[in-house]
Structures are given as C-alpha cells and as structure tokens.
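Example record

One chain of 105 residues, shown exactly as stored in the release files.
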Amino acid sequence: MQDFKNLKVWQKSHALTLEMYKATENFPGNELYGLTSQMRRSCASIPANIAEGCGRNSDPEFARFLAISMGSAAELEYHLLLARDLGFITLANYEKLNKRTAEIK
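Predicted structure tokens for this chain:
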C-alpha cells in the first residue's frame, strides 16, 4: 500500500479538480445539477479512484482503479468539449483544461 499523495498523477489530478471547481463556478444556474455537477464529479473521480486503488492490497486492484480513473478522464474530455461548444468556457480555458486532462490520462 502506497501513499497516494506522493504520486504525481494524483497531485496533478487533484490540482485539476480544484481548477475545475473554479472553472464551473459561473456556469448557468440551471446547469448546477447538469453539466456543472457532471464535470465536477468526473474530474474528482480521477484522484479519488487513484487514492482508492492505492488503498487496495494488490497491484491488479490498483491497476483496475487506474483504469477507472482513465475512464473518468475520458468522460471529462467530452464534458469540456460540450462546455466549450455551449459557450460556458472560453476556447483558451478549454484548451488549457483539456491539455491537462490529456496529460493526466
């Protein structure tokens, strides 16, 4: 069992989650339970699954939770695209967040 907080991928995904909360602060109020929630949950799922995998007793289980994190990152990539196309985030912010998401994947 390893300390997830020492993993660079966890550190980067945690920082991205904090940034995602800020990026979605000004989304329309009617999206609070829609896209805002979806983006926050898929992003937070990345470091959460890394942390859970670190708490498991075997490398295969850790690998399974890393795969789940990858799926959440792919989900976030789509949500970012949707937010961009709906005009909720700027092109520059989309590119920055999408690049960071791809790096974590």
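Notes: The mean pLDDT is 96.
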